[in-house]
Amino acid sequence: MSGPGTAGGGIGGHATATAAAVRRAAAARAIDSTGTPESHWTEWRGLRSLPVATLPGGPVLVVAAHPDDEVLGFGGTMAELTAAGVPCHLLSVTDGERSHPRPTRSAARRLGGRRRAELAAALGELGLGALRPRYLSVPDTAVERYEDHVRDAVAGMLRETGAVLCVAPWTDDLHSDHEAAGRAAATACADTGVPLWCYPVWLWHWSFPADPRVPWDRAARLPLTDAAAARKRLAAGRFVSQIEPLGDGSRAGSGGAAILPPGELAHHTRNFEVVFL
Q: What's the rounded Cα separation, in Å, for the pair 103 and 95?
């Protein structure tokens, strides 16, 4: 059995592993909860008054834990950058093959292929049809076991593309894959001297306005033009495996709700995006 804190062995290693397991269970409960309605965020003046971030003029590397994270968290800005002639590059860490409960091996393979195809269609909607993501194919739900590999891949792409900015999942998003991908990107950026922006995905679900757990003092808005916001809405709609009830990604008869129901998707179809600087 592997996982954070188990390598040390002994009582200390066991205690660390237990603490990590407790945290993961708490995170799962938070993500599985009803969540904060988008109307609460819309009404919060603090979100509307965040400072506006300045977009870079050079290449940007976007890191995603799963196909759709980059679109939900940063897709509108990717469309803005592309329209302005700024090159965007994408590193997709997993294929998202375990987004549905209890998948069979063959179902997971099919779902991974489907999610790659959905990402390609979504990038086309954003005006990035020529972008060819680099896929690491790290096992979904296990990114924390491959952080060094992800870090090296991010650092290599930063050097290869000459990126002046890296954008990655927020390291406190409560999804272990998002957090691990964000940590790996942060280490790679520290090693290469490239600035890092982090985008949240699940925060809008489990958090609430003025939540003291969130570093709002480091948050910034990225306003979207009407055209970019419309492109992002179309792109988000391409992830049918996530916005429709389970479908063929799980064992036959398992049933269940969509991963991204309309209420959740509403958090990601605003006319702005938010990053932590």
A: 14
> For the stretch 113-141, what's the b/e string if a residue is b when 16 or more beta carbons lie within 10 angstroms of its beta carbon?
ebbbebbbbbbbbbbbeebebebbebebb
List Cβ neighbours of 144 (8 Å cut-off, separation of 6 or more). 3, 4, 176, 177, 179, 180
Block means of pLDDT (10 residues each) for the chain, 277 residues, are 32 54 71 90 97 98 98 98 98 91 83 96 98 97 97 98 98 97 98 98 97 98 98 97 69 60 96 98
- Do 30 and 174 form a contact (C-beta atoms < 8 A)? yes
pTM for the structure as a whole: 0.89
Distance (Å, whole) CA 125 – CA 273: 17
φ, ψ for residue 163, nearest 5 deg: -60, 140
Q: Would you say 122 and 75 are in contact if contact means Cβ atoms under 8 Å apart?
A: yes
Q: DSSP label at 52? A: B
Query: What CATH class does 38-276 carry?
Result: alpha beta
Domain locations along the chain: 1-32, 38-276
- Measure Cα distances from 266 to 182, 203, 260, 270 in Å: 23, 13, 9, 7
